[in-house]
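Example record used in the benchmark description.
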Amino acid sequence: MLGNHLNNEDFFIQLSRLLDSRREEEHVTTAAPVSTQQQLADTLTDLHPSDPLPVLIRATNGKSKAGRSGKVKLSTIVQPDALEAFFGRYAEVCKAGMGALKKRDRSGRKKAKAKKKKAVGEGDKKG
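Model output (structure tokens):
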């Protein structure tokens, strides 16, 4: 199972590529799954390990079953002592990837608001 995970540096490189290559219809999902107490009880005999457990971080381009051939899955394991540095770098990569986001079109919203104001203003004049 550990063979499928990237090291942290390769994860950031691949995540950067994934964020840069997105198109309008694609999205990127990242997750750090959290185990519930029951899941831990089922898998661990010691519920209070002496050392903190590593964290699994995943990212995908969110392709559905129809587009599975193009689905990209990334994952890495972060050791507890490297979490702060990892998430600092992770934030930088995500911020850099936001440049690929499409700016929101709010022109329709402004037009609707202007129409509403105009209708309310005309309603006051009639009364």
